[in-house]
Amino acid sequence: MLILKDVDCFYGKGQVLNGTSLEVGEGELVGLVGRNGVGKTTTLKAVMGLIPAKNGSVRFCGRNIAELPPYQVPRMGISYVPQGRHLFPKLTVRENLEIACVEGKADSARMEEIFGYFPRVKERLTQKAGTLSGGEQQMVAIGRALIASPRLILLDEPTEGLMPLLVQSIAESVKAINEKGTSILLVEQNLKILKEICRRIYIMEKGAIVYEGTSSEIDAAMDVQERYLSVKV
């Protein structure tokens, strides 16, 4: 479904992605992990066209979407949940959800599906987004991504800064969304969560993928965890 091949990206003259290659298949939940500053967020922005790929290709369902302007990428069936949620704080929860609709109001069945994943969102529909807790804001951000019925969701650090109970709740919701058929590329620092819910995991270092494996394979590769993540989980 999504294939990045030898992608290079730069901020000015500084190279951030260095021949990055990864794949997300139809219906897969794939994790991307690495230390801070190695290029994980840049990888997602390259898919969305927010940072141009200077070399390589970004293909989605057979088409090289690197040539598209950023506003057309969501219309191909890709939703993006950025790190930090980026809601409109003075708009209500309902308005934040509906703003992602290309035409008209959100489909009522789609809204009910979102409420099924996140009951608290339904309870907060008329509340200003800026008054929500961090966990509630994350639920709204993921709900906003679901409004357009995407085939693929890019999730950037959805559990960042959340208390452990909410971390597990968000992780379970992400898994449930995937089990309904939506493909997901999940960037996370929490390797334990990735191993619990992802089919495959990529490890990134210095703008390149340095390891790919299943949860069990990463479990067995303690040297890899220590070398690239400085952890043993």
Could you please describe the fold and organization of this structure?
With 233 residues, the chain is α/β, with parallel strands linked by helices. The chain has two domains: 1-77 and 152-233, P-loop containing nucleotide triphosphate hydrolases (Rossmann fold, 3-Layer(aba) Sandwich); 84-149, no CATH class. It is built from nine helices and ten strands. The chain has helices at 40-48, 93-98, 108-117, 119-123, 134-146, 164-179, 191-197, 215-220, 222-229, and strands spanning 2-11, 14-24, 29-33, 55-60, 63-64, 78-81, 152-156, 183-187, 200-205, 208-213. The chain has a six-stranded mixed beta sheet with strand order 6-7-8-3-9-10, sandwiched between helices. Helix 6 (164-179) links the parallel strand 7 and strand 8 (183-187). The two termini are 30 Å apart.
Present the secondary structure layout:
Blueprint lengths: L1 E10 L2 E11 L4 E5 L6 H9 L6 E6 L2 E2 L13 E4 L11 H6 L9 H10 L1 H5 L10 H13 L5 E5 L7 H16 L3 E5 L3 H7 L2 E6 L2 E6 L1 H6 L1 H8 L4
Parallel strand pairs: 3-8, 3-9, 6-7, 7-8
Antiparallel strand pairs: 1-2, 1-4, 4-5, 9-10
Care to give the gist of this entry?
The chain has 233 residues and is α/β, with parallel strands linked by helices. The chain contains nine helices and ten strands. It has two domains: 1-77 and 152-233, 3-Layer(aba) Sandwich (Rossmann fold), CATH 3.40.50; 84-149, no CATH class.
